[in-house]
Amino acid sequence: MSEQTDPGEPFGPHSRQHTTPVMIGKVQVGGSAPVVVQSMTNTDTANVASTTKQVAELWRAGSELVRVTVNTAEAAAALPRIVDKLAMMGIEVPIIGDFHYNGHTLLANEPACAEALAKYRINPGNVGFGKKKDTQFAQLIEFAVRYDKPVRIGANWGSLDQALATQLMDENHLRAQPWDAGRVLREALIRSALDSAHRAVELGLPAERIILSAKVSGVQELIAVYRELARRSDFALHLGLTEAGIGSKGIVASSAALSVLLQEGIGDTIRISLTPEPGASRTQEVIVAQELLQTMGLRAFTPMVTACPGCGRTTSEFFQELAGTVQEHVRARMPEWKIQYPGAENMTLAVMGCIVNGPGESRHANIGISLPGTGEAPSAPVFEDGQKTVTLRGEGIAQEFLGIIDAYVARRYAARAD
Predict the structure, then answer these.
(1) Cα separation, 237 vs 252, whole angstroms
(2) What is the C-alpha separation between 23 and 111, in angstroms, rounded?
């Protein structure tokens, strides 16, 4: 059993740790590629219409990989039809099959599913039990080799390989200075992923077809596990808390854990596993993942809006409404801008509520507006690239400001378009 060591100096956000690149369809994960955003459906995969619809929604929101549950014969049979329907819609997002317990049987019985999927996800903690474990794991790897598919070997805190955990606990009792139980379980999780990956290579799956994950639900545990995974292997790594939680808790926990690892150059693809509010869109987790990467300076997806938090000087709610309107507007326009005006995703915007920081923040942005606070003149100067260009007044400020943004994008980024 390998001892844990200090991970050394952080890599920093623009000096990523080297990992073996993996191609999933046309998407590269690892190597020199930017960190990839992915998500997962929560529909019954056997329901072709609802699953296709949700995959399309996640893709439009920016999910570059989408994972679906493959747990029944009906779900496996539906996969080729889902992929075909997406292709007819012009959506070529790679679809990942999530297998637990019976993946070897489903792939054997539904070869069209094995072919249609862009990647398989295998959990070494429940791929099989007892004498069947090694056989069923080997069968899954053999399918990946046969169909030339990459595999994520995803160990999970909630379904840890109990035989391995028991073995490591027994070994720990023999240590002169035993580890605490938490460290032993972290080691079991790491070993489960690494040992399975090395076994897959022995079975003929190239290292450039393997991605690893070792998910837990605690922030500090996740950081410790992935630092050690990164130290001990060159496999591409998928990051994410296994159950981040609902609402702000899930967002904060995921951001706290992943930002530390990403800052150290660890992680090649991420998922923010949020529990959605009843009836809420699944796409929120995609937006959170994008915003995390963008605020860290790792990628750009859509213009970022700096907005005033409000204070006693900003008695009007108009600046809050305008900030929301601007954010919704640029996100809605981004699919079009991405094609017509490449580079627009790097644009910065500011919506400020009074004279204290308003003009200064507005000058720092590509486009900014400083709205009047309490007792200020009812006018709103607009700044473009640090220069005041116009002052807006009256009831139509919001629409005029959106028009200024659209005109700026067309003027500034048109030259970059093909």
Answers:
(1) 21
(2) 21
Integer-rounded Cα Rg, in Å, for the chain is 24
Domain containing residue 350: CATH number: 3.30.413.10
Q: Is 89 helix (H, G, I), strand (E, B) or coil?
A: coil
Specify whether 92 is located in the same domain as 110. yes
How many domains, in total, are found in the chain?
2
Backbone φ and ψ for 242, nearest 5 degrees, come out as -70, -40
Give the domain-ending residue among 247, 266, 296. 296
Secondary structure of residue 195 in the 3-state scheme: helix
Q: Is residue 9 part of a domain?
A: no
Specify if 358 maps to a domain.
yes
pLDDT in tens, 335-358: 999 999 999 999 999 999 988 989
- Sequence-distant (6+) residues with CB within 8 A of 92 are 25, 26, 86
Residue in 77, 99, 89 with CA at minimum distance from that of residue 149: 99
Measured CA to CA, the distance from residue 217 to residue 254 in angstroms comes to: 9
User: What CA–CA distance (Å, rounded) separates 242 from 360?
Assistant: 41
DSSP alpha helices (H): ranges in 147-215? 162-173, 181-202
Residues 208 and 323 in one domain: no
- Give SS3 for 314: coil
CATH of the domain at 271: 3.20.20.20
**Can you give the residue range of the structural domain that contains 336?**
304-413
Q: In terms of C-beta density within 10 A (0-12 exposed, 13-18 middle, 19 or more buried), how is residue 173 classed?
A: exposed
Annotated binding-site members for [4Fe-4S] cluster: 308, 311, 354, 361
Instruction: Give CA–CA dist 237/261, Å, rounded.
Output: 11
Q: What is the percent of the chain with per-residue pLDDT over 70, rounded to a whole number?
A: 95
CA distance 18 to 230: 9
Rounded Cα distance between 83 and 159, Å, is: 29
Do 272 and 342 share a domain, yes or no? Answer: no
Q: Which residues are annotated as a binding site?
A: 308, 311, 354, 361
Q: What is the pTM of this model?
A: 0.91
288 and 391 co-located in one domain: no
pLDDT of residue 377 exceeding 90: no
Coil, strand or helix at 245: strand
Residues 135 and 250 in one domain: yes
**Same domain assignment for residues 395 and 283:** no
